[in-house]
Design brief:
Layout lengths: L3 H12 L3 H12 L2 H13 L1 H9 L3 H6 L1 H23 L16 H13 L2 H10 L11 H28 L2 H5 L2 H24 L5
Helix pairs in contact: 1-9, 2-3, 2-7, 2-9, 3-7, 3-9, 4-8, 4-9, 6-11
């Protein structure tokens, strides 16, 4: 059931930088290694609703209903723009702070969770992606999709953790330079804004 093709394809998809990777890397850079693990956990947990929606067929609602898709899409875009704004102003938990190691774990996890749960394309992705690796003759396709989805989530978590830890290894060098740290914060802020705008302008997949 879990083929090499599925593992390789999933790994490539997980490795591609997106909002989750961006958030985890930023957390590793500007907060701590521990916080980046929580960020990875939050982003991974944010996959659960989309996975369940896909396996239960609820993703079809996003595919068929323009209103449902638009509502979730704009909520996600607004949230990404909000993250961009607070990072630009250096007033969010992602900002450099000597006491940042004490950042609230629930807060870090919640932000990562919201980033993924407010992306309607994620559930549509699972609906289109997972069935490709399930044979038509399988008697319990729902169970198979949940297992494959679980494996995808584990890969997501471990890859994001690696991203976060690697980012944290450069944090002291970056924090040591105010100009560099400020420039990188603005880069992340701009990236969140760009992804928010991209999501807002995205269309349903027909």
């Amino acid at each position: 059931m879990i083929s090499v093709e599925f593992l390789l394809t999933s790994l490539v998809i997980v490795l591609i930088p997106g909002t989750g990777v961006l958030y985890t890397v930023a957390t590793g850079l500007f907060i701590s290694k521990r916080a980046s693990v929580f960020a990875a956990l939050g982003c991974t947990l944010g996959i659960v609703p989309s996975l369940l929606a896909s396996t239960l067929g609820l993703a079809a609602i996003f595919h068929a209903s323009a209103l449902a898709f638009q509502i979730v899409k704009y909520l996600g875009a607004i949230y990404l723009l909000y993250l961009a704004l607070v990072m630009w102003k250096s007033s969010s938990p992602l900002a450099i702070d000597k006491n940042s190691n004490k950042a609230s774990a629930p807060s870090v996890i919640a932000k990562g969770f919201l980033i993924n749960i407010l992306n309607p394309k994620l559930s549509i992705f699972f609906l289109a992606f997972l069935p490709q690796f399930i044979a038509p003759s399988v008697q319990q396709p729902l169970t198979n999709m949940l297992v494959l989805g679980g494996v995808f989530m584990l890969m997501t978590f471990f890859v994001f953790v690696v991203y976060g830890i690697l980012a944290n290894s450069f944090s002291q060098f970056i924090i040591g330079s105010e100009k560099l740290s400020s420039a990188i914060q603005k880069f992340f802020a701009g990236s969140f804004a760009a992804l928010g705008i991209k999501l807002a302008l995205s269309e349903q997949t027909r």
